[in-house]
Amino acid sequence: MDAEKYSRSITLLCPTCGSTDLTDQGADDGAQIAVCSSCGLEINKDDLISENSENIAAHVKEIGQEISRDFAAEIRKSLREAWGGSKYFKVK
Ligand SMILES: [Zn+2]
User: Fold this and answer.
1) Which residue from 85, 81, 86 is spatially nearest to 26, judged by alpha carbons?
2) Which of 24, 26, 39, 50 has its CA 20 to 30 A from that of 18?
3) Structure pTM?
4) Alpha carbon of residue 49 to chain centroid
């Protein structure tokens, strides 16, 4: 698969209030924590990504029908690897 072709940014949303203003608060017991500056929700990155599965799935649908469902799993994997303090994640 030509990964570059499907490169895009996905904005993760706060699952509670829908804000995109999430701040990386660093690691806590091995899990990286994001804090929503709108409602104060603290959520670890794995939960955040899983809460955003629908959002991610919508992007996958947008990209095109030719992509297998496995690509959603690839994006989630990329998001985990790309995590690093930015609320925008470059997915390749
Ligand atoms: Zn929030």
Assistant:
1) 85
2) 26
3) 0.56
4) 5
Considering its fold, how many domains does the chain have in total? 1
Tens-place pLDDT, residues 4-53: 555 566 778 999 999 999 988 877 667 788 999 999 999 988 899 888 88
Is 21 within the bounds of a domain?
yes
- How open is the CA angle 52-47-35, to the nearest 5 degrees? 90
Q: Which amino acid is at 73?
A: A
Sorting pLDDT into bands at 50, 70 and 90, what band is 57?
confident
Measure 82 CA to ligand 1 centroid, in angstroms.
21
Residue 6 lies in a domain: no
Centre of ligand 1 from the C-alpha of residue 38, in Å: 5
Give the domain extent around 16.
12-91
CA of 64 to the centre of ligand 1 (A): 30
Residue 35 CA to ligand 1 centre (angstroms) = 8
- Residue 1, domain member (yes or no): no
Residue 25 lies in a domain: yes
CA of 27 to the centre of ligand 1 (A): 19
Residue 3 has pLDDT above 60, yes or no: no
